[in-house]
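FORM 7B: Structural annotation worksheet

SECTION A. Query
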Amino acid sequence: MPRPRSSQPWPQHTIRLAKRRRTRTQMAAIPPRTPVLLLALAVAALGCHAVEPPKQERTALQSFLAALPHERDLGWNSPSAPSACLWPGVTCDASNATVVAVRLPGVGLAGALPAGKLGQLRGLHTLSLRNNRLFGAIPADFFALPLLRSLYLQGNRLSGSIPPDVAGLAALRHLALYDNHLSGEIPAAFAGLRELRLLRLDGNRLSGGLQSLSGFQRLEVFNVSDNQLAGAVPDSLERFPPESFAGNLRLCGEPLDKPCPSPGGGVVPPVQEKKRKRLSGTAVAAIAVGAAAGALLVLILLVLCFVRSRRDDAAASGDDRNKAPTPATPVRGHTLTPSTVSGEMTDLTSSKEIPSAAGGGAAEMMRSRLVFMGGGGYSFDLEDLLRASAEVLGNGVAGPTYRATLEDGTTVAVKRLKNVAAERQEFASAVETLGRVQHRNLLPVRGYYFSSDEKLLVADFLPEGSLSAALHGSSGSGRRPMDWNTRKRAALSAARGVAHLHAAHNLTHGNLKSSNLLLRHGDPEGAALSDYSLQHLFSPPPSSVQGSVGGYRAPELVDARRPTFKSDIYSLGVLFLEILTGRSPTAASTGVGDSGVSSDLPRWVQSVVREEWTAEVFDEELVSLDGGSAEEEMVALLQVAMACAATAPDARPDASEVVRMVEEIGVRHGRATTEDRVQGASEEEEQSWGTPTGTGATS
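SECTION B. Predicted structure
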């Protein structure tokens, strides 16, 4: 918890000075030889009170704040705070001679970090700008602070690579850059940061290996999960749990229990020192003879294959042309190709596996290719996917979704689209547009496959499942009840994902529902929306697509293949109501839910609220978990939900406004003020906020 504001707003040396004051009678009793000494002490004390950081540091702080739009006034220019050491979020040393810490977590800073500002605070040892809306590259002057011990920039939208200048932070102990958009390799300059105790780089897009981190023996908290890293985990990092490396599909070795492949395709054996021996002349000659014999054998086989092929072609062009074709032998393994028995896609729900390819469908699939759009670090091909085992995850109107596990252990989500009307070029263009969408609250589309019989999408697999399963799954399936904090953050994730689609890519979601909001383990604000912006690819008859959003569909939406921004907002509002009530909109709209209502979910909520029974709206499971302590926040989200689900489209807010309103929930209802938060953000609290579960604690 933030520590309460001190009731003594003045520095301790001022208080000590007040204690030294004397009454006029006391002064008269002092021997006449001491006035000069007292005067000198008074001047010295007043001089101490006047000490404050250099003017350039004050100017640097004001310039930094002026360059960034921010939601709340921090009062740094207020006449009541003449010294920079009294500004919220600013801490000075004991003598007020220099700024040693700047802590501005979650104060609404937005925009690109200005360069050449905070780098002037040469005495800075703690800098925290976490959980704001900062984007762009990290300024180089941040890495030129010689005394910096703690740097917390997590929870923003920072991009670009981590520069080699990080080597300038020789005193650095805590570095938290997680939940950003950083890319590129982890620089080798990290090897010089020998004082590091905490390093969190998870939730970015970093690539390359971990060899630059192999020398850290003093690390206590470490996490690089959910990146695009590859290669072996260094021996010095094997002491950390598998969760610290999760989400990097090409990492191998301990502690992932995933052996690293050797260049020859086998498994890398334990590293051993081997003596090199020179080959004798006899051995060289034997190798040469063997190689020549092997080449001759290959040549003979090629000739035989060519002759056999010509013979088969001749036979096929003769009398066999009028014969019924013999069914081809199915490809081994569970595959993603259609059955040729009836020309229809085989029903996969009961088998829980993807059927084998047969006949012409397999041939066409082999002629086509699996196209990756980058960003996922996947390197398998169509043949690998054909041999993958698969399990049905769900079967929506757009098509079934599978969990496909490849032979090397890689797991991906594969969606088989049905009723697709788009031609190859239109389909490829649309999916490649989705491949450029990069946001932590949107499940990235990694690849696709297109043929006349099959249209596949490949995406990352999130094992935590969907919000729908978390809300409505049976307790016997291992489902854990969702508390208020987790539900609120899931709502915020959905809003941010929709806002990014609308603002950054001018795309609609079109199929927004709880089964398409996938949760991330240990990251409540990292839930990701899937199946977005696909509706226009389907066949003109809307019968199968019209119900794709069920009780989530806006009343004005006639053709579900043509969603609008405002129809997305309506669906988002219904999703919020589902989070609050625990009721499925589809069940509510058909009158088969446990409530037995015949109206849709928004109208039912309106009827209950109209009767002033607002508390009856909220999920009993949610209320029992939180004991009513979050009721004000729940009512606030209910108001946002009803605004989004307004019948008139023009009455609904924009997605960015929805994000702002949801973010403010908690700030306005019993939470600490901005000044209390920034003044109470001690280094110990920063460490506890940044410590992932199961990875230890910092000192």
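SECTION C. Observations
The chain has a mean pLDDT of 75. The longest helix spans residues 281-316.

SECTION D. Sign-off
Analyst initials: ____
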